[in-house]
Specification:
14% strand; 2 domains; 38% helix; Rossmann fold; four-stranded parallel β-sheet
Length: 321
């Protein structure tokens, strides 16, 4: 695997390989000594043009547990904010000897540009670009669903026959886009629920059903219900009348939680707006996977970095178990 830029072009075989390696990584994280020597001598750069403490810390933990050297590069307050281009920044990282670059950028396509420009020889991981994709989030979500469904018997399995409903601000959500493509590739049946104003203009090519009524979607009995964060910071127009109205019609409250099948799980990519898209009852219930998603994120990102930097050279399982 040379780069991880999106889930739309990720094959089923590659997706399962990442998830299965993540299982191996997860097994190592229950040991007393969690650190592996796998990427010793490698340098991973976290290049964040947008703030995201959670994602950056997750990637940093993943790289450090594989013994890589980590450089955190925040564009705020740096030469980038003074007008340095992505090309200049990339060439600086190349001169530093970066082996992998984890990039989060406000412009859709920036990771693709970095990976294909020839400015840098490092492997590129997309940690979120504009309203385009966030592949490792979708992978950790799929990993979490698979783990809840199959337990320790997860390796090699896809999500065939699973019904997944994604609710909320689909318009601004790269998490929703990455999940739609990956879940479809893994065999799941995907439904999107949102106010009409928060559905992208043309979703005819998306492998998903569109529903506007959350109660109707809950009544269908999904195996997993994923609540998206309302991205108020990306909204410069009124996409719904009031937050209270949104919560009443599209929020997961105690009544909707109770109406779900007993074995349905509740997911959220975080950070949560409690009381807006999800109630405290739902967020803290035993069926909520929110904290599992955070823990699994480190294992999945360890797997992605391993496959980028060591997997092609050495696929001997003993090296990463």
């Amino acid at each position: 695997m040379r780069h991880l830029l999106d889930t739309k072009t990720l094959t089923r075989a590659d997706a399962l390989r990442i998830l299965d390696v993540a299982e191996d990584m997860r097994d190592t994280q229950s040991r007393e000594v969690k650190k592996l020597p796998t990427l010793r001598g490698k340098t991973v750069v976290n290049l964040f043009f947008e703030d995201s403490t959670r994602t950056r810390i997750s990637f940093e933990a993943a790289a450090k547990r594989l013994s890589a050297d980590v450089i955190n590069f925040s564009a705020k307050g740096s030469s980038v904010s003074k007008g340095e281009s992505l090309q200049d920044t990339a060439q600086t990282l190349q001169a530093m000897g970066a082996d992998a670059v984890v990039i989060r950028h406000g412009a859709s396509g920036a990771p693709q540009t970095l990976a294909t420009s020839g400015w840098i020889t490092a492997g590129v991981v997309n940690a979120g670009d504009g309203t385009h994709e966030h592949p490792t989030q979708a992978l950790l979500d799929a990993f979490t669903m698979r783990k809840r469904r199959f337990g320790d018997d997860s390796r090699g399995r896809d999500l065939s026959g699973m019904a997944v409903t994604i609710v909320g601000d689909v318009l601004h959500s790269r998490v929703a886009r990455s999940n739609v493509w990956l879940l479809h590739t893994l065999g799941a049946d995907v439904t999107l629920v949102a106010p009409p104003t928060l559905v992208p203009q043309d979703v005819s090519a998306w492998p998903a059903h569109i529903v506007y009524d959350l109660d109707e979607a809950v009544a269908a009995g999904p195996d997993a219900l994923m609540m998206l964060r309302i991205q108020l910071e990306r909204m410069n127009a009124a996409y719904f009348p009031t937050e209270r109205e949104y919560s009443r019609r599209w929020g997961l409250d105690a009544a909707r939680l109770a109406a779900l099948p007993a074995d349905s799980i509740v997911m959220h990519p975080g950070p949560m707006n409690r009381g807006l898209e999800i109630s405290a009852d739902a967020a803290d219930s035993p069926r909520s996977t929110v904290l599992e998603q955070v823990a699994n994120g480190v294992s999945v990102r360890m797997a992605a970095l391993y496959l980028l930097l060591a997997g092609e050279r050495d696929t001997n399982e003993e090296d990463h178990r």
